[in-house]
Specification:
little secondary structure, two-stranded antiparallel sheet, 2 helices
């Protein structure tokens, strides 16, 4: 059986990565109403969805070898 199986608070008090003490305050209450939250989120019931998805990113560069590809011809992201 291990000797060091005590709660973490015994070994070090809660702190940030810079070594400062953590305040145990709750975050500020959001001013967003329930109606606003429901309008922004993609709520679904069964197989019926609101369908408010982010638009698909279509920008990028066309890659070589397009004849045998099955997942698309555009490359996105940093191209070194």
């Amino acid at each position: 059986m291990a000797i060091n199986n005590k709660p973490a608070e015994v070994y070090a008090k809660p702190h940030t990565m810079s070594g400062k003490a953590v305040d145990n305050k709750l975050p500020a209450i959001s001013t967003q109403t329930g109606k606003d939250f429901m309008n922004e989120s993609n709520i679904s019931v069964g197989n019926v969805s609101k369908g408010n998805y982010k638009p698909t990113k279509t920008s990028g560069i066309q890659v070589r070898g397009g004849k045998a590809q099955t997942k698309g011809k555009m490359a996105r992201g940093p191209m070194a």
